[in-house]
Please model this.
Amino acid sequence: MTDTSHITNGQAVIGATPAAADGPEHVEVPVAYDAILLAGFGGPEGQEDVIPFLRNVTRGRGIPDERLEEVAHHYRHFGGVSPINDQNRALKAALEAELASRGVDLPVLWGNRNWDPYLEDVVKEAADKGYGNLLAIATSAYSSFSSCRQYREDFARVLDSTGLIDTVRIDKVRQFFDHPGFVRPFVEGVRDGLAKAIAENEGLDVATEVQVLFSTHSIPSTDAARSGPDFRGFGEGGAYAAQHEAVAQVVLDQAWAELLEQPEHESLRGTSKPAWKLVYQSRSGPPSMPWLEPDINDYMNETLKGGPTRAVLIVPLGFVSDHMEVMWDLDEEATETAGELGFWSIRTQTPGVDPAYVAGLVDLVLERVNGTPTSERPHVTDIGPWYDVCRPGCCENVRAGFKPAAAGLAP
Model:
C-alpha cells in the first residue's frame, strides 16, 4: 500500500466531482457522469494553419516565427495537415460505438489543447447542454508534464476562464500505460513484426541479429525526474522512463511467447528473445538542455552500426496513434537511418482505433462510473494501476513551475 501520510487532510481538488474532491488515490464509489471529454493535442488542417498552430503549442515561450518554421516543414511535407484530428474523430466515433454496444448512455465530447475544436468551446457546450460532470480521457498514456499534467492544467485554466468552475466538474481516467487494452496492439505488432523479419531475412538469428527499439517522445531530463510523485522513488528518469521500461518488457515477453506458440516458429523454442532498448525521439529543446537519451537515430548509428544487427523493429510505444511524430520521425527519419545502415526494418502499429484499445478506454470510464475497487482494476506491470487523482507535486514543469491543475491534489 502506498504511503499517503504526507498528504495534508482537507486538500481539495480543483473542479472535481464530490467523490474525487478530497483526493483519494482511487475513487471506489460510483460517480454519475454526464459525458466523456476526449482531450487531444490538436493539429493544423491546412498550410495556413501551421504557424498559428505552432504559436499555440509554444505560447508563452517567445519563440519567433522563423524558428517555428524549422518545425513547420514536417507538417508542410504532409500538405500542412496533421493526421491527429482525423484520428481523434475516428476515436470519438469508435468510443461512441463501443459505448452503445454496451448500453452505456454517455455522449463523447472532443476538445483540443492547441487547435479547433478548443477545450474552452467544448466545456461551454457541455454547460449549455446541462452536463455538469465530465470524465476526461487524455490521448496520452504515460506520466509527465506534457502527457498528463499539462492536460490537467488546461482543464483548470478552461474552467476558470469560462467562469464555469462552479458549474462544470472535470475528473480524469487514470493514466493507462499498463492497461491491457493499450498494451495489446503493441504485443500483436511486435509478434507479427518478428514473424515478418524471420520470413524476409533468410537464416536470421533472432537472438543476436534482431533489435527491438521501443521509441517514445523525449522530454527534458529535469521534467522526467519529476514525473510521477516523488515518494515513489523512480530515479532519474522518473515515472515516465520507468513506465515505458516496464511496458516494453511486458510487450516483448508476451509477443515472444505468442510467436513460439505458432507451429512454424517452434524451432525458436529454447532460444533467447531478441535484444531490446528504450530509445527516444522528437527532442526540440536547445542543445544546452539535457533531454532523455539515446535518440533512436544516434543509437542505431553509434551502437548498432557494424553488426551483428541485421533487422530492427521500430515500436512507437509512447504514442496512441500515427500522428506527426510517428509519420515523420519514425516512418521517415528512423526508417531512413536503418536503411542507410543496411538494416531490414519495420515500424509496428500504434493502438489507433484497435478494438482492444477502444474497449480498454471504455473499461477505464466504467471503472469510474461504477467505482471499481482498485484490486479489480487490470494492469500488466507492477507500477499500476495508476492514480485516479494525481498526487501532490506530480509532473512539475521545471521551467514554468506549478500552475493550478484539475484532477489532482495541489500543487
